[in-house]
């Protein structure tokens, strides 16, 4: 078992739970400044160890927290982390919105970013127990969540979702703008693909770039990609 720390919150990360990345930090960094959301009902979708909703709860989010993950062990992990801080959370296991039929929320936070299948296979982010079923160009999971989310948002509700440019990310933005009237970029950070992996798998990277399964920059001998956090609101009627 490993641990992950964000500011003053330390969580245990069990085997079978996705280990938090900079994506979670970027989501938290944006949301902790949105004081108008602190009383919102929150759905943490793809919660993993629960880091996003737990940090927000400890920062002062006073509304009810619900969290789900396709992995039962991840949900159990999140519940244990909440219990450690004497905080309440309703956790359920299931795919995407399946556990939340007939429910709606003020804020849905999707921490399930997709990357191209070929890149997932060579990356250090996924072990044998973690699924990355995002399709060849990394867009399928996020697009499904975007398309289904209006049914689970209250009036005036917002969806927060990440996009990694290790995917054909314009397809995801197009889907979001088709479903929502307002889609805005709220945070981003650039990263360098690990040099050792880039050298070892240059053929995989070049093929993914050629087929537009990923859209990245190549500068100074490095493949540069971004994590981008978007907020969507006002579903189209």
In a nutshell, what does this entry contain?
GO terms for molecular function: S-adenosylmethionine-dependent methyltransferase activity. With 237 residues, this protein is of the alpha/beta class.
Structural notes for this entry:
This protein has 237 residues and is an alpha/beta fold. The protein has one domain (2-235): Rossmann fold. The protein contains 8 helices and 10 strands. It has helices spanning 22-31, 51-59, 72-84, 117-122, 140-148, 169-179, 195-200, 202-210; strands at residues 2-6, 9-13, 42-45, 65-69, 90-93, 105-110, 153-164, 180-192, 217-219, 222-235. The strands form 2 sheets. Strands 3, 4, 5, 6, 7, 8, 9 and 10 form an 8-stranded mixed beta sheet that branches. α1 (22-31) runs parallel beside α2 (51-59) and α5 packs parallel to α6. The chain is globular. The model is unreliable at 127-131 (pLDDT under 50).
Number of helices: 8
Beginning-to-end CA distance, first to last residue:
46 Å
Number of strands: 10
CATH domain topology: Rossmann fold
Q: From N to C, what is the helix and strand string?
A: EEHEHEHEEHHEHEHHEE
Report the sheet with the most strands, covering strand number, pairing sense and barrel closure: 8 strands, mixed
Question: Please, how many domains?
Answer: 1
Radius of gyration: 17 Å
Beta-strand level of the residues, as a percent range? 25-35%
Based on Cα principal axes, name the global outline. globular
CATH class: Alpha Beta
Tell me which CATH architecture applies here. 3-Layer(aba) Sandwich
- Secondary-structure-based class equals alpha/beta
What is the arithmetic mean of pLDDT? 94
Q: Looking at this structure, what is the CATH superfamily?
A: Vaccinia Virus protein VP39
Q: Which bin fits the share of residues in helices?
A: 25-40%
Query: Which residues sit in consecutive blocks of at least 5 with pLDDT less than 50?
Result: 127-131
């Amino acid at each position: 078992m490993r641990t992950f720390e964000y500011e003053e919150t330390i969580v245990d990360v069990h085997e079978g739970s996705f280990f938090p990345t900079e994506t979670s930090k970027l989501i938290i960094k944006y949301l902790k400044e949105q004081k108008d959301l602190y009383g919102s009902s929150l759905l943490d979708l793809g919660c993993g160890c629960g880091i996003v909703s737990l940090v927000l709860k400890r920062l002062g989010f006073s509304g009810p927290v619900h969290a789900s993950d396709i992995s039962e062990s991840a949900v159990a992990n999140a519940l244990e982390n909440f219990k450690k801080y004497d905080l309440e959370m309703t956790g359920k296991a299931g795919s995407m919105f399946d556990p939340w039929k007939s429910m709606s929320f003020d804020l849905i936070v999707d921490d399930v970013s997709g990357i191209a299948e070929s890149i997932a296979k060579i990356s250090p982010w996924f072990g044998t127990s973690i699924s990355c079923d995002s399709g060849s160009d990394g867009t399928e999971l996020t697009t499904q969540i975007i398309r289904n989310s209006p049914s689970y948002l209250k009036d005036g509700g917002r969806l927060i979702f990440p996009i990694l440019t290790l995917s054909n990310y314009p397809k995801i933005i197009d889907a979001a703008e088709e479903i929502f009237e307002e889609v805005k970029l709220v945070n981003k950070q650039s990263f360098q693909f690990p040099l050792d992996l880039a050298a070892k798998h240059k053929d995989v990277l070049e093929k993914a770039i050629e087929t537009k399964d990923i859209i990245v920059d190549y500068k100074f001998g490095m493949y540069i990609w971004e994590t981008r956090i978007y907020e969507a609101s006002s579903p189209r009627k």
